[in-house]
Amino acid sequence: MPAERILIVDDDRSVRDSLGEYLQEHGYEVSLAADGEAMRKAFAAGAPDVVLLDLNLPGEDGLSLARWLRANQDVAIIMVTGAGEVVDRVIGLEVGADDYLAKPFDPRELRARLKSVLRRTRGAGGAAKPAGKRVKVGHCTLDLQTHQLTDAKGEELPLTGMEFDLLRVFVERPNQVLSRDQLLTHTRNREWEPFDRSIDIRIARLRKKIEADPEKPKTLKTVRGAGYIFIPGD
Asked: What are the φ and ψ backbone dihedral angles of 148, each rounded to 5 degrees?
């Protein structure tokens, strides 16, 4: 099996070099980039499996680059923040990051996060996905085999690994109220706590994609004090 490919985007050369050397020693294929321009050139040479993206970059910051990645590339994103403040974490998740890591961090924690993100984005350990099964979700269609979400016109909508995992959990359990804790368990995101806003943020993002009126959802509905429920269409 080929080594997983990691792209480290950080303007601090010492950080890039030390993390790159550490991950290479543990079997990863590593590319390095100091800014957005270098990041795009790295993609032109070959797409990585995970981008380790620093939030505070000169010029285009990490949030802008994360938005570009989510709109243009099928890749997992781990956002690295300087302060580790909740607001940084929430913003990073809102723009589509799959996970976050606060500096300073132990390289062993980075490896654990990488393994977790790679498991989630590759669907390892989850329920078997029926070959070629397409499921109606709101006014969209979800392909459980290709992980693609398409709108009523057949145009593909961007979908993060975590967003796909959430939709998969819902469509496999229609008309069943699922608590935040259950959603975290089924999507294997146990590093986030049940009260973490990440679930609510992802649900809100999904509603904007699949609901005719996200403010009055009919497909992913909130059950006050209990969680969320997926209501299949006709």
From this structure: -100, 140
